[in-house]
C-alpha cells in the first residue's frame, strides 16, 4: 500500500474544489455500457428557488391539465442540447417571466438514473412577473409567496427545496456548487472513497489497464437501471471486496461536483457525480485496523500522507460540507 502519488493528489484537490475530471474509462458496471439519451432513457429536471428582498419565494401557477391552477416552484425538464444552467434560465423565463442567474445548486434528488432533479438557489436579473394576461401552456401566472398565506400546491415535495434555500441564504454549509461543462456518455459516480483508522487514511484507487503498475485513478462506477445512482458505489465495493462486503457499510456523504455537457444528443447526455464516500464496519463496536482486503487486482489502497489533503477531506466529512443528494 503506497502513499498517494502526486497525480492522484492533484485530482483529489480538483474534486474537493468542485472542478471536473474527464471521464475516460469505467471501473464498475454490470451490463453492457450503453450511452444514455435525454428524454429516452434519462430525464433531468431543473427547479429554481428564488427569493425577493422581502424573503418571499417565487411561485408559478400550473397550466397543465392534471394540476391546473395549483402552485409550484419554476421547474421543468431539460431539453436536448441544453446545459443544466441553460435549462434553469429557460424554465424561469417561460414560467415566471424573469431572467435569472443561478447562485448555487442546493440539492440533487434522484429516483435512479431515469429521473434526476437539480434544485438551484437563484436570483432575478431582469424581466417582470408573469401576469394572467400572459398565460400560456407553460404557466398561468407567477407570484411571490410568503409561505404563510394559503396556497394550493401541486405537491409538498418542494417544501424541502424551499427550506434548503432559506438555510443556505442564512448560513451556507457547503461551497458554491455549479455544474462543470464536461461530457459523459452515461450516468455514473466517481468515488473519492475513504477508509480511515487511528489517524491514518487510505483511498481506493483503480488501476489503469494500460499501465497498472504506475498509473491509478479514482474509480468510476456506472449507474445501473433499476437502482439508485449512488448504489453503484456499493456495487463497486461488493465487486472488489467480496470476502468482507457483508460487514462493510458504504456511506455516501454527498456531492463534490457535477459534470454534464449534453450538446451531442445520444453521445454526451450522461452525468458524472463526483461523490465523497467513506467505508465503515457495519457491526457496532467492530473496527478494522487496516483497509479491507481487496479481492480484485484491478484496485489498490493508497495511503494519504499529505496532511493538508487529509485535513481537507476530514473537514468536509465532519462539517457535512457537501451538496446533498437524496434518493426518493
TrEMBL record:
It comes from the Eukaryota. The keyword NADP does not apply. Its cofactor is Mn(2+); Mg(2+). It is an enzyme of class 3 (hydrolase). InterPro entries: Nudix_hydrolase, NUDIX_hydrolase-like_dom_sf, NUDIX_hydrolase_CS, NUDIX_hydrolase_dom, NUDT18_NUDIX. One of its GO terms (molecular function) is 8-oxo-GDP phosphatase activity. The keyword Hydrolase applies. Signal peptide: none annotated. It catalyses: 8-oxo-dADP + H2O = 8-oxo-dAMP + phosphate + H(+); 2-oxo-dADP + H2O = 2-oxo-dAMP + phosphate + H(+); 8-oxo-dGDP + H2O = 8-oxo-dGMP + phosphate + H(+); 8-oxo-GDP + H2O = 8-oxo-GMP + phosphate + H(+). Its EC number is 3.6.1.58. Keywords: Hydrolase, Magnesium, Manganese, Metal-binding. Residues 41-166 form the Nudix hydrolase domain. Mediates the hydrolysis of oxidized nucleoside diphosphate derivatives. Hydrolyzes 8-oxo-7,8-dihydroguanine (8-oxo-Gua)-containing deoxyribo- and ribonucleoside diphosphates to the monophosphates. Hydrolyzes 8-oxo-dGDP and 8-oxo-GDP with the same efficiencies. Also hydrolyzes 8-OH-dADP and 2-OH-dADP. Exhibited no or minimal hydrolysis activity against 8-oxo-dGTP, 8-oxo-GTP, dGTP, GTP, dGDP and GDP. Probably removes oxidized guanine nucleotides from both the DNA and RNA precursor pools. Belongs to the Nudix hydrolase family. PANTHER family: 8-OXO-DGDP PHOSPHATASE NUDT18, MUTT/NUDIX HYDROLASE. This is 8-oxo-dGDP phosphatase NUDT18. It comes from Pangasianodon hypophthalmus. The lineage of its organism: Eukaryota, Metazoa, Chordata, Craniata, Vertebrata.
